[in-house]
Specification:
- The structure holds two protein chains of two kinds.
- Chain A is an all-alpha fold.
- Chain A has nine helices and no strands.
- In chain A, α1 packs antiparallel against α2.
- The longest helix of chain A is centred in the last third of the chain and has 33 residues.
- By secondary structure, chain B is α+β, with helices and mostly antiparallel strands.
- Chain B is 34% helix and 37% strand.
- Chain B contains eleven helices and 21 strands.
- In chain B, a hairpin with a 6-residue loop joins β15 and β16.
- Chain B is elongated and about 130 Å long.
- The relative contact order of chain B is 0.14.
- The mean pLDDT of chain B is 88.
- Classes of the chains: A mainly alpha, B alpha+beta.
- At the A-B interface, α7 and α8 of A face α2, β7, β10 and α9 of B.
Chain lengths: 277, 440
């Protein structure tokens, strides 16, 4: 059986290459480079998917079979998978390849940290009783797809701020119109919001079975609600008030800070029931 | 006055404010641990801070009066906004009721008009065909030599967002109902024991179950790595002298009876366990086997020393079971040490080995009743349905009018879509071409 962590290492390099070529295609407006970047992203995705499947099969061979979504290492690998996946399915809306650059670059960063950091244990571990549930897959998938959308929206908001505040020289001049960035951010946040809603609902349904209550104001639950409220406020301001501009990109950045805190901060800073990420 | 209040409560500004207010205050409860015994907080904080925090119920802030008030305000806000939206949606979804309305054509800014010299039957046929392909079979009305066609699809999608907002109300209502009429607590049962009451969490005393619950057996399985694999309690429920239910609960698989839910919550080793420890006097070579109950001392043969077992670990650091032994000698401090099955532990003149033990587990079962759950579940289903309706369906409306003018038949089209208007407009722009084309 092929070692899944080896496949993940290859994927890391492929995503780096993709991000680099996307950037070149973006700066020099080369269609051919864009094609290469896209092919390389799809290839990276294929290897990445193979890594997930290998790990899944491997866990069954060890007699502790479960989807590879159960600890920090697996969640990081799946998070980066989600980023590229969300980019590929929403590609039609991504006219400027910015989503491509952001998704592959973020994926590369996450995978590089995951594979290089000595703090990340890549062993396949058996599932503790609380995680042995059919809700595991649907809960984790919806949450990480949502995180991926918010991460891309975060990147777009940063670019938006650069476009609006920095002088229009050099690489910033190449960025698309602020309005285009704003629209793309909004689209990503809408999708992410619906996915996060599903993530919270599946989580609540699971908690009802495992802990006897669907909501208990556990720090993880509370922070997911905080994230939901921030993006909910964003969407209400945008849809009914038509608010746009710098303050909305700041809300998007604030929202992503809450995402990071929900994902990591809660586990490393606060204590609670949800100690396995 | 009434109008002003209605405007305030139906404003999105209030929604955004409440969202941020709830989010910001929620952070507090994740930084300050909730629901500890009140004495603990008194130790942590100074008297002044403690009394302020006490007033704002910071120690149980998610159930405090002000947090509940925020949620109630949010509910009122949602109700007012929904009521405000409903007339608009009714208007948008009832446009088919008045098919000969020329005002639609007069008022629309996105009207498309062209002329054709084809005979009217052919145009009628073509209009029907195209509207059918864009939406549904159109309603065809004739009035004063003018022909009106109207077709629409995806009307329900307009109600999707209303459903999402109503679902939040259901979830909030379910939460309130659970907070007021729900309760939860715990039963600790040793294997073989039964209980007809349980102790409520947050120290509010005990509550009658109304039936008996018996723990037949508890087991815990481990993986090879020593990680727990499964906790399982076998239960029997006896109601009015009759065995009504026998089953097992494990984590993620609760049992339900008479509106109560029983979840596997915790476990431990009961004090009723008994142990057999082999003690050998290495000076005299005398061997004895002591049978001990937990925490009950017994004298070692021919000595003044007493021995007791204080604790059992089913698996001591991967070495198998270990018990914590205590030697009690007059005028000496207690000597505490681990005893295992595989090797003797030497203490003074004696060598100890764990021969066998008969351990009894206790299981901790969480009991809960939450009459709000059906509302919350309905809310979840409504929310998902609402999102599906408004995301995957589009309300499309097309009005088409053919009337005679001096230049021939004048064809006018007005179209409207609730989503993706840009793509839809492009589609409509192509209509004239399809009319002039020869596809019949």
């Amino acid at each position: 059986m092929i070692n899944d962590t080896f496949l993940v290492s290859i994927t890391t390099f492929v995503y780096f290459f993709s991000a680099f070529v996307f950037l070149i295609s973006y700066i020099f407006k080369k269609k051919s480079a864009e094609k290469i970047a896209l092919v390389s992203t799809v290839a990276g995705m294929a290897i990445h998917t193979a890594a997930l499947i290998c790990r899944w099969i491997h866990s069954y061979q060890m007699g502790i079979g479960h989807a590879p979504l159960s600890n920090f290492y697996e969640s990081m690998v799946f998070f980066s998978w989600s980023l590229v996946f969300i980019y590929l399915v929403t590609r039609k809306q991504d006219t400027n390849n910015l989503g491509g650059i952001l998704a592959t670059f973020f994926s590369f960063l996450i995978l590089a940290y995951t594979t290089l950091s000595p703090n990340v244990d890549c062993q396949i571990q058996p599932l503790i009783p609380a995680l042995q549930s059919n809700w595991l897959t649907s809960h984790v998938i919806t949450c990480f797809f949502a995180y991926a959308c918010f991460a891309i929206a975060f990147g777009l908001s940063i670019l938006y701020l650069l476009k609006r505040t920095k002088s229009k020289k050099g690489i910033i001049a190449l960025l698309p119109d602020a309005a285009v960035l704003d629209e793309a951010t909004y689209n990503m946040i809408s999708l992410g919001f619906v996915l996060l809603t599903l993530g919270i609902i599946t989580g609540a349904a699971w908690a009802e079975n495992a802990w006897g209550r669907y909501w208990g104001w556990d720090p993880k639950e509370t922070w997911s609600l905080i994230t939901w409220l921030i993006y909910g406020a964003f969407l209400h301001a945008r849809i009914t008030k038509g608010w746009k501009g710098i303050r909305m990109s700041l809300v998007s950045i604030l929202g992503f800070t809450a995402v990071i805190f929900t994902y990591l901060g809660v586990n490393y800073i606060l204590s609670g029931l949800h100690s396995y990420l | 006055m009434y109008k002003k209040l209605y405007n305030l409560f139906s404003s999105t500004r209030l929604t955004i404010f409440l969202f941020f207010a709830i989010a910001a205050t929620s952070i507090l409860g994740t930084l300050i641990q909730q629901g500890l015994p009140i004495e603990r907080y008194e130790q942590i904080y100074s008297q002044r801070v403690f009394s302020v925090m006490g007033f704002f119920d910071i120690f149980d802030m998610y159930h405090s009066w002000w947090f509940t008030l925020l949620l109630v305000l949010l509910s009122i806000n949602i109700i007012a906004c929904t009521l405000r939206q409903i007339p608009r949606i009714i208007r948008l979804t009832s446009s088919g009721k008045n098919p000969t309305d020329d005002e639609i054509f007069a008022a629309s800014r996105t009207i498309k008009t062209w002329h054709s010299n084809r005979d009217i039957e052919a145009l009628e046929l073509q209009a029907t065909k195209i509207l059918t392909s864009l939406a549904k079979t159109p309603v065809h009305t004739k009035k004063d030599n003018t022909e009106y066609f109207f077709a629409e699809k995806g009307k329900t999608s307009r109600w999707g967002m209303i459903l999402v907002h109503v679902s939040v109300l259901f979830i909030l209502a379910g939460g309130m109902i659970g907070m007021i009429w729900g309760y939860s607590g715990q039963i600790i049962l040793v294997e073989g024991e039964s209980a007809d009451t349980f102790s409520l969490f947050s120290g509010k005393g005990t509550k009658e179950l109304g039936f008996d619950i018996i723990c037949n057996h508890f087991s815990v399985d481990f993986y090879k790595t020593g990680m727990p694999k499964r906790y399982k309690t076998d239960l029997t429920i006896v109601d009015q002298g009759k065995e009504v239910m026998t089953g097992a609960i494990t984590v993620n698989h609760p049992l339900h009876y008479k509106g109560l839910k029983f979840c596997q919550a915790t476990y431990g080793i009961a004090d009723t366990s008994s142990f057999q420890v082999a003690a050998e006097n290495t000076v005299t070579g005398e061997k004895t086997v002591l049978t001990l109950d937990k925490m009950k001392k017994k004298p070692l043969p021919n000595s003044e020393i007493y021995f007791a077992v204080a604790k059992l670990l089913p698996d001591y650091k991967g070495r198998g079971p270990g018990v914590l032994g205590v030697l009690i000698e007059p005028d000496k401090a207690h000597d505490i040490f681990w005893i295992f099955k595989d090797k003797q532990t030497q203490r003074g003149a004696f060598a100890f080995r764990l021969k066998d033990y008969d351990k009894a587990y206790y299981t901790g079962i969480q009991v809960s009743k939450n009459p709000g759950t059906p509302f919350v579940r309905a809310g979840f289903i409504f929310m998902i349905t609402g999102f599906i309706l408004s995301l995957f369906f589009t309300h499309t409306r097309i009005w088409l009018r053919i009337r005679d003018t001096q230049k021939g038949h004048e064809i006018s089209v007005v179209a409207n879509a609730s989503k993706n208007q840009k793509a839809f407009k492009e589609k409509i722009q192509g209509l004239a071409g399809r009319f002039q084309g020869d596809e019949f």
